[in-house]
What we know:
Blueprint: H1 2-20, H2 31-40, H3 46-57, H4 87-102, H5 106-125, H6 133-150, H7 157-164
Helix pairs in contact: 4-5, 5-6, 6-7
Amino acid sequence: MLRRLLTLAAALTLALGVAVAPAVPAAAVTAADKAAVLARWTQTSADSYAAWDAARVNRAPWAAYRFDWTTDYCSSSPDNPLGFDFRYACWRHDFGYRNYRAAKQFAANKARLDDAFYADLRRRCGLYAALVRPACYSLAWTYYQAVRVFGAVVVSSADVAEAAELLPAEAA
């Protein structure tokens, strides 16, 4: 029985290792490889976000790709407006902006990066209680419009106050 469990554990470990390993050996990373991974991690889908987040947590296998993982989260706007945590959506957005700029392919990808940001924010809002979701969705739309128009998240305290008015009295 123990032998069977150890065999199963070894098989699962091997399968997981294959699933999370980069598609290309680290020494063979080309510009095309990097572009493909970058594109895969910056789509609007939840799967794309999950793939980026798994790589964010375990960057070692991706070191040869030399991605820029730096972030200032939501720039000069609140990272947690009204308690809604937008940090990781902002981080992935920064990741896309920084890496596409470095690849000199930013203009061709900006609209998709902004749309992915909005999708990430909306998914995050969906995790909150239905009572407070309208305020979260309002802020998500405001953050999206800021990046779409200005290329950075610049949300004023008046914008946050306007969204706060959507919160029920007991949630505020």
